[in-house]
Design brief:
Blueprint lengths: L7 H8 L3 H9 L10 E5 L2 E4 H12 L6 H15 L5 E4 L1 H9 L2 H8 L9 E7 L12 E7 L2 E5 L7 H15 L5 E3 L1 E2 L8 H18 L5 E2 L3 H19 L2
């Protein structure tokens, strides 16, 4: 399903690649011309005009990815890039609730996802430990494939505790051991690209599941991370034109 009322918003997303325009958008009064009517709905990604422009600015600059952008790219990977993979890609909202909710609620909450029937499960992990408020400072990827858990963390050890907690919770539901292996994977060179690394690691894991490649050594270049930001912005604009 898709709704777009303001195609001109795509022009704003194009302009966000220019630093002087981003500064003008923040420092001037031009934002008063941007209303909050819904303009895009695709899979789990529903954004109003101001939100869409904010997402574009996040992708264009050196900023952490928000949970909506992470969910958007996971939906793209699952439904468009690798539709035949039969792998569940679980976004930040569901993962966070599953990690922190009361134990008796967990199985019923995850039941509609039919995780045990899937070939694998990929979850984006956040280190926030508060179930009642947003927060956290780091994203990583946890994979449940072949009866084992593998953790891909671009900041070594940054999310190990949260990932192990998630593995222990998922193990009885998936019928596998809760043992988790830390993969040898790419490391971020700055303090803001963890979310992009989690997504490109997910992309590479899906590619290797398809080809039979090594899942314990996954390396992507910084150039690919930068390209992924541009890819997400391009995909949002392409989907908005459908």
């Amino acid at each position: 399903m898709f709704l777009c009322r303001y195609p001109m918003c795509l022009h704003f997303l194009d302009l966000l690649q220019y630093e002087h325009f981003r500064k003008e958008l923040v420092n001037s009064q031009c934002t008063k011309f941007i209303d909050d009517q819904q303009i895009l709905h695709w899979q789990h990604y529903t954004r109003r005009r101001t939100q869409l422009l904010s997402d574009g600015e996040i992708l264009a600059g050196p900023h952490w990815l928000n949970d909506k952008l992470i969910q958007f790219y996971l939906d793209y990977l699952e439904h468009e890039a690798f539709p035949a993979a039969d792998v569940a890609l679980v976004g930040p909202d569901v993962t966070q609730f599953a990690r922190l909710c009361a134990e008796p609620d967990l199985a019923a909450f995850l039941a509609p996802l039919r995780l045990k029937e899937r070939r694998g499960v990929l979850l984006v992990i956040n280190d926030c430990d508060r179930p009642d408020a947003p927060g956290g400072s780091h994203w990583s990827l946890l994979a449940a494939v072949g009866g084992r858990f593998i953790h891909y963390d671009s900041m070594s050890g940054g999310n190990e505790t949260a990932a192990r907690q998630m593995a222990r919770r998922l193990a009885p539901i998936l019928g596998c051991s809760a043992k988790m292996t830390e993969a040898s994977c790419s490391r971020q060179q700055n303090g803001y690209d963890c979310g992009v690394f989690a997504l490109v690691h997910a992309e590479e894991v899906l590619r290797r599941l398809d080809s039979g490649g090594d899942l314990l050594r996954v390396n992507v270049s910084q150039e690919r991370v930068e390209e992924a930001r541009r890819d997400m912005l391009r995909l949002i604009k392409e989907i908005a034109k459908r």
